[in-house]
């Protein structure tokens, strides 16, 4: 059995720091949506599921949840550019207040594709919330309303983020040792 903890170079953001920031983000979201009765959180699968769960629990206001599967990574460590919806929403979003809940923004391609797709469905409003932001990798400028942490250009795993479907269960954000993924580098 693989010892996933041995594959970690360093813990970038510990569990306590994550939870403190998530509570602060939830408070800001509540303030910004104070006058809006309807709020739909759309989780970008699979990586954002832990973040969604914690931000949902931290919100004290009524909200709904739905999920979208968007793919641009394949089995590599960087976005491949070809973005596609692999699982769509279950219900219409017309005239609803939408908050996209994303795990990490890298190039911006995936998020911009998703944003355009959702705006075409005529929501009342659309905002974006991400746990992690990698500004050094940005290729497409996407306005993000809520950012948990700006991080360096490192390959990170944990708290829902994976490499080859492993490491999602780590309770923190960690940098993966380069030798773990060196065999697939572009």
Report on this model:
The protein has 186 residues and is an alpha/beta fold. The chain is built from 4 helices and 9 strands; from the N terminus they run βαβαβββαββββα. The chain has helices at 15-32, 49-58, 109-119, 178-181; strands at 8-13, 40-45, 64-71, 84-87, 97-105, 125-133, 146-150, 156-157, 173-176. The chain has a 6-stranded mixed sheet with strand order 4-3-2-5-6-7, with helices on both faces. It has a 3-stranded antiparallel sheet with strand order 1-9-8. Strand 5 (97-105), helix 3 (109-119) and strand 6 (125-133) form a beta-alpha-beta unit. Helix 1 crosses helix 2 (49-58). The longest helix has 18 residues, at 15-32. The mean pLDDT is 90.
Biggest sheet descriptor: 6 strands, mixed
What is the C-alpha radius of gyration, as a whole number of Å? 16 Å
List the helices and strands in order.
EHEHEEEHEEEEH
Q: Structural class, from secondary structure content?
A: alpha/beta
Q: Quote the distance from N terminus to C terminus.
A: 27 Å
Average pLDDT value?
Answer: 90
Uncertain segments: none
Q: For the largest beta sheet, what order do the strands appear in spatially?
A: 4-3-2-5-6-7
Determine the oligomeric state from the structure: single chain
- Strand segment count: 9
DSSP helix fraction: 10-25%
Query: In one word, what is the shape?
Result: globular
Number of helices: 4
Quote the beta fraction. 25-35%
Give a quick set of tags describing it.
single chain, 186 residues, alpha/beta, 9 strands, 28% strand, globular
Summarize the structure.
By secondary structure, the chain is α/β, with parallel strands linked by helices.
């Amino acid at each position: 059995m693989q010892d996933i903890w041995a594959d970690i170079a360093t813990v970038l953001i510990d569990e306590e720091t994550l939870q403190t920031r998530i509570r602060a983000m939830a408070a800001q979201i509540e303030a910004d949506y104070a006058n809006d009765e309807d709020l739909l959180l759309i989780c970008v699968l699979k990586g954002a599921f832990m973040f969604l769960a914690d931000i949902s629990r931290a919100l004290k206001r009524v909200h709904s949840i739905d999920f979208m599967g968007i793919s641009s990574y394949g089995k590599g460590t960087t976005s491949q550019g070809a973005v596609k919806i692999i699982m769509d929403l279950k219900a219409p979003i017309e005239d609803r207040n939408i908050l996209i809940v994303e795990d990490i923004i890298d190039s911006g391609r995936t998020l911009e594709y998703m944003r355009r797709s959702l705006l075409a469905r005529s929501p009342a409003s659309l905002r974006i919330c991400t746990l992690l932001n990698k500004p050094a990798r940005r290729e497409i400028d996407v306005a993000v309303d809520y950012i948990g942490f700006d991080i360096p250009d490192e390959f990170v795993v944990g708290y829902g983020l994976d490499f080859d479907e492993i490491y999602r269960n780590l309770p923190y954000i960690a940098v993966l040792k380069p030798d773990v993924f060196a065999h697939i580098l572009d």
